[in-house]
Design a protein that fits this description.
Length: 300
Amino acid sequence: METWVLITIAAAFLQNIRSVLQKHLKGVMGTTGATFVRFGFGLPFALGFVALFVMVMGYRLPTPTPAFIFWVALGGLAQIAGQALLIQMFGHRNFTVGTAYSRTEPAQAAVFGLMFLGDRISFATILAIAISLVGVVLISVARSATGAAALIRSVFSRTAALGLVSGSAFGLAAVSYRAASLALGGPNFMMQAAVTLLAAIFLQTCVMLIFMRLREPDELGRIRAAWKISALVGLVGAGASFGWFMAMTLQTAAVVKALAQIEMIFTFASSVLIFREHVNRVEIIGCILIVAGILVLLLV
């Protein structure tokens, strides 16, 4: 099995753990604070990855280029924008539908990758993305009273637009991070990914700290009070992001994000095994389609 495949699956698993931990944080702080934790508390660990490679492994620290700075800034800001749009959707009555549209990230990453980096994908990959996307959408709307029919009817709704733009932002971020890592030109994919992660997470931490200081200063106190679990979220989140960055240095962002849909399987398992939530038929069909899409991606 190829290296990027193993790394992507591990990153998806870690991201699911991070999401589970963040659910607990929502009980002690707001959405903004819970979002900041993945960046702010992940920063020391991102710095640790770079230090480990330089001081222990002896890898050369790459010199940032103007292209690297541009792409990492674009990726970091696009990721924040995508997250903000997701948060905004929570205030809408049919936010589940918008969330489903945001899952178009792999398809949009394919478009951005072709536009900006010349990344081309095969017909089998396109088919795999389409099959998995249907499965993810089914899981996203399975517990909503609106259902799949409303998903189709709402194509021109405000929530759908927010979801699609959110997916665009995440897709753009993925492609930008790949471009940034490749712009470093060495010494290897691990070091390139570590430096890209450190630069991106530093930018995101600064932006969110300024935002909270100006708009939600009370969140800072809540974050300090929950520093123990926040540190764990930061560790797991930084590990997941490092995995994504390594995988996207080795493989196109669209293909990595297509395989990353396996996270929904991990989320599904967490809902059943940890939170003891009821599973319906639509969710099971969605999981089957995700697995089918992943098999097409890896075997064809």
